[in-house]
Amino acid sequence: MRKIGENYIIQYKFVNDFNLIVEKHIGYVQLDVLKDSIKLLSSKKEFSINANYLIDLRESGFSMNIDKVKEFVNFLDENYSGALENRIAMIADESDQVAMATLFKMLQPRTSRNVHVFSTLEYALLWLNVDLEERRMEQIIESANSLVKC
Are the C-beta atoms of residues 91 and 61 closer than 8 Å to each other? Predict the structure, then answer.
């Protein structure tokens, strides 16, 4: 059984060579913190509304319910709808992660073909058309800057 820390940490890295924003979530996902992190991330000079996302959920846990996920999707649609037009690859390897990522995908206001859930980094990178070795991307993920700690 995996152990989830008490703190929720969101880390990020802009990988401009691949028009990619990498996020890593550690701990139990909290909707209010997640919303604040998106506001903060979008205020960074390196941020591009046209970037694709690689979201690593492998060290996170979820206790959100369907209404919370709907609220989050509505928040994104109202404030960052352009980001939902891009590719969003989520890496998940536990049932709660897969369930919440799939629910996020299903609740998209438009077609959900831009959001996919993967069990491996390798396939996420292939789908994102990122020509980078898996080992190198793991290094990028591990070197991500902390965006939010709580």
Answer: no
Please tell me the distance from the alpha carbon of residue 89 to that of residue 22, in angstroms, as a whole number.
10
Alpha-carbon gap, residue 109 to 138, rounded angstroms: 31
Cα R_g (the chain), whole angstroms: 14
Is the separation of the CB atoms in 57 and 92 below 8 Å?
yes
Can you tell me the distance from the alpha carbon of 4 to that of 8, in angstroms, rounded to the nearest whole number?
9
Residue type, 139: Q
CA 67 to chain centre: 19
Q: Are 145 and 20 in contact (CB under 8 A)?
A: no
Q: Specify the 3-state DSSP secondary structure of 11.
A: strand
Q: Give the rounded distance of the alpha carbon of 148 from its chain centre.
A: 14
| Tokens, residue 12 | 């990020």
- Which residues in the chain land under pLDDT 70? 1-6, 64, 110-112, 144-150
Give residue 150's pLDDT: 43
